[in-house]
Amino acid sequence: MVTEVVYTETYKITLALLINNVELAFGTSTAEKLLDRIDGIVKKIITNPNLYQAIPLDTRYRRAIISRQSSLVYEVTETKIILLYIFDNRQDPAWT
Hints:
The chain is of the alpha+beta class. Helices cover 40% and strands 32% of the residues.
């Protein structure tokens, strides 16, 4: 049973960069809506850790799509959900 959610430094940095970029491009209200969306996704992950698509390379890692442009990558262990980073979907992922 999952008892802890871990926010890695990489996750915190990539989240801050994403929010900053959205705020600069589209304004504070859009950035706040995006944060609310991400919070909702994290709550769903806590409730059901295996809800989102497993990455084929290693099924411990999963990807939750935030928007067309970004995804949240996380790891599921026996006792933890580890939020790893926010991924820009326009990049070429290593797991394809």
